[in-house]
Amino acid sequence: MKATAFAPGSIGNVGPGFDVLGLAVEGIGDRVTVELTDGEARVDAITGRDGELVPRDPAKNVASIAAAAWLRNAGVNKRVIVSIDKGLALAGGMGGSAASAVAGAFAASLACSAGVPPALGRKAGETPALHVSIMAAALEAESQVSGRHLDNIAPSVVGGLAIVRCGDPIDVVPVRVPERWAVVLITPRVRIETKAARAILPTEWPTESWIQQMANTSAMVYAFATGDGDLLRRSLDDRYAEPLRSRLIPRFREVKRAALDAGAIGCSISGSGPTIFAITIEVDHHCASAMKKAMHEIESDLHVAPIAKQGVRRV
Amino acid sequence: MKATAFAPGSIGNVGPGFDVLGLAVEGIGDRVTVELTDGEARVDAITGRDGELVPRDPAKNVASIAAAAWLRNAGVNKRVIVSIDKGLALAGGMGGSAASAVAGAFAASLACSAGVPPALGRKAGETPALHVSIMAAALEAESQVSGRHLDNIAPSVVGGLAIVRCGDPIDVVPVRVPERWAVVLITPRVRIETKAARAILPTEWPTESWIQQMANTSAMVYAFATGDGDLLRRSLDDRYAEPLRSRLIPRFREVKRAALDAGAIGCSISGSGPTIFAITIEVDHHCASAMKKAMHEIESDLHVAPIAKQGVRRV
Known about the structure:
By secondary structure, chain A is α+β, with helices and mostly antiparallel strands. The first copy, chain A, has 10 helices and 11 strands. Chain A starts with a strand and ends with a strand.
């Protein structure tokens, strides 16, 4: 009646794939313990990054909402007591709330049983029913925080690169990723709210521009699928969000140039920022140092890791 | 000083990949013979489909314009005498003008030498220099007929499924296609001009819709790359052009339903129509018959063939 799950952080959008692509990152994520109870729901303990900012009201806490939603959808009449150990900042652009929600829903599923009622898979497309049920519960929680978007939830659940082909019904396509490709994440210590970063985006954008964005996103998926670093370098080119959102991020241009000069095969903004990500052909501390140096006097946190091959897991 | 080339016809857009994807089709295409001359340029003979509609003025004939453009770009000071044997209708939506232009440019390159001056590759991205030079010349010719679009030219040159990642500089990504996948093409005998079919499209379209289109296009590329027919079935879903252009095509809805009911893994409009294409997991005459039958009293032409693994070739 009690279980713990870990969900990795993730890079939303991954450049041009706005609201479509997400990439899971190894070694950093949120850990959630769920205990079933017949009593009142509550949030027991919150440790880790930004712990003091995480809501303690179970009706406002994403891990708790997602866990409760999973149980309700599965027809399990229980409340949850959750404990959260956050590895991800709340508004860093590394899918922190998605990871909490995913870990919460998955821990709830583990706490009540190993299986998943068949009914949960009914709108599943080809995505496995358990994955769909976790994503649906996490989406319900996320929609109360940052809107109904799956681009962080999907990679947190399935690992690797995920295409959100459709949000309703949920249809997520896990894309094969090259064995050694890795990422560098650098987060300047400034806060950008997801909602503000969305508001800055154009509501209308020319057809030719969308066609170019579509071409880059498709080519990027193919670059991952085939391990073609040169193609990734050409196609990881976001014309929609990056030009506007990068203005909110100190030293973005310098950090991007430093990453590419150091051999990264792509660099852009993770989700709504302020985290900047670079993709490298292997774990690359030299590239990370170059990016850190380019941040100059701006304080920042660095994470260098492989792409997470696995998504949410029992711990 | 004389050579003949064959370029296959192609399906432009391939559903959601508007102006981004093209798919080459085996067994149908245009054949162009180019002879170099120091005298006047001329169009010698035009045979085959719609031959009577093909311009005989070398300044207005796409094969001739493309051949001349290729030579000029290569610094070869010669005029061309072209003969054309058309397998593709002029305005059928199967890339007829693109195939003529590609075959013309390639035949010109064969007629003057086997090689290509290195300068032609200078803006080539990773696409081979000869391919880029053919595409650039064909694009110059096509832009005088139907606008500057590479989605038919690219597959006619490289074969298989092509992503037009960028038009300027030209960057085309050939995508691995499943060995046995095939197509059915059915062309009702009505004429739709490419320009009219473009004019019907919305100049503004909502961001959420573009995101959905981007998701489907990316997922479709991955479906081809991995041979995932179920994924193709879900992702070959064009919300941009199909709903509007299908109104210009008699019996579209019935033919599409018949194709999918007969086991096709996707069906939409080829380029600007009126050709309707279906993708099948192997050459499928049963599916073709079902589509033909659904055309009812409308006269139509049918072509059932594998995906062309090879693009333009010497014959």
